[in-house]
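seq as requested:
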Amino acid sequence: MREPILLVDDEPLVRNVLKDYLWMKGYYVLAAENGAQALNIFSQTEPALVLLDLQLPDIAGLGLLAQMKLLRPQTPVLIFSGRGHSVQQVDDAIRQGAAGWIAKSFTTEKILWEMQRVLARRQ
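struct tokens:
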């Protein structure tokens, strides 16, 4: 079995579409709808990659990124967001260790391409 991918998004439609698409592409996907669930899954598994929505109902995405990097600095985290964010926020995410930033107007193919790029660098 492949290493799991952790998908964190509070929007059920986005979460389910991405989970199903990645599953069809051969990835084992664990999904969380908020930061608390994400941290629980992250601490109990060793995901190969985290796809992290920046806007979550219970914790800021950058705060969650920081917590994940404290637990496992080697785990790549791709940030995605659908709301307008400043260049400063993108820079902050990259400085805190994010492997990349994807605008939420993405296609499933764009997510897959970014994942493959990051996972290839990891190996």
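The longest strand covers residues 4-8.
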